[in-house]
What does this fold into?
Amino acid sequence: MSTYKLTYFNVTGLGEPIRYLLSQSGIKFEDVRVEFDDWPKLKSNMPMGQMPVLELDGKLYHQSKAISRFIAKKGNLYGSNELEAMEIDATVDSIDDLRQALSTYYWEKDPALKEKLKGIAFEKLPFYLDKFEAQVKKNGGYFVNGKLSWADILWTAYCDYLSFVLAGDPNKDHPELKKLVEKVRALPNIKAYIEKRPKTQL
Amino acid sequence: MSTYKLTYFNVTGLGEPIRYLLSQSGIKFEDVRVEFDDWPKLKSNMPMGQMPVLELDGKLYHQSKAISRFIAKKGNLYGSNELEAMEIDATVDSIDDLRQALSTYYWEKDPALKEKLKGIAFEKLPFYLDKFEAQVKKNGGYFVNGKLSWADILWTAYCDYLSFVLAGDPNKDHPELKKLVEKVRALPNIKAYIEKRPKTQL
It folds into this structure.
């Protein structure tokens, strides 16, 4: 049997969708969490100097969305045909565009630049949330074609992180998104993971 | 038979990998090119206010990488198994990280911010090029497992655009990447597309 080892910081961020997807798919994995102080000496071992990485049967794989898609296929979370898969991928990339805009602003240290990036991110935020809300409403409570996919799980996992960045629930004014996230968090495997995961600030 | 209509600006950018992939896969498509002046009145018709979009049998699909992956599957350019597909996806996302860093810097109008973004992009550039060069060298002249995939085609198509941004060939000091790009441009279907495509500045 294959052994899965996921290595990331001890935060939600880009690692959490993979942890959710592995849990939902019933795949046992070693959940390695690197402290920020230890990162400089590990960085050069990583394929592109970044985490998360998945070690699978001794080989390292990188890029969070590539890893997530691979796990999603194993968990039957990638649609029923290639058209659905394309819609799931498009949704994932739009969700990630929003995550990236908010993250880039949040971590910027230069105050003038941070203010500018904040403007960009906070212009995007309501536009994207309204689009996502309409998409979930139109698709029977899920992002694509009325059934659970890794787009729903990605959004739910990112919301853990975005709640920190936004200091509040990103879905609070969007009832369809709120219901979707509650539904994903209540899936037995994901619920069990959330209950046992380390408590982290972000 | 399905009808494919790709709509994007009259530039290479995010549309060109899809045009290359459709050509390589032998799929006939309508290559609609929007002038910048006409964009404001079209923008609100697009799923996320962005292009490229692919219209397939009357339905609009968005996000360039999602569309590219869909076409890559049709053209047998997505590896032979799920592990290869994951490596192709990871390569694609790393290539796109570099493209995005360079593009964000290039189009920024605020001089101070542009200078800062330039620093970030030009720190990334040699690191990524060296990593890509080593990867292609290790994989027999292609990005993944010694055979053509949509990662090779994406990089080649982006090089049209990046040559403009960098005012020179991105591969000039990286012989493996240079050979790869020449090989992709010489594929009969892609060569034919390049010869007949509209000449554009970027």
Chain A is about 55% helix and 10% strand. The CA atoms of residues 9 and 39 of chain A lie 8 Å apart. The interface with chain B takes residues 47-49, 56, 61-63, 65-67, 69-70, 73-74, 82-83, 85-87, 89-90, 92-94, 110, 112-113, 116, 127-128, 131 of chain A (CB under 8 Å).
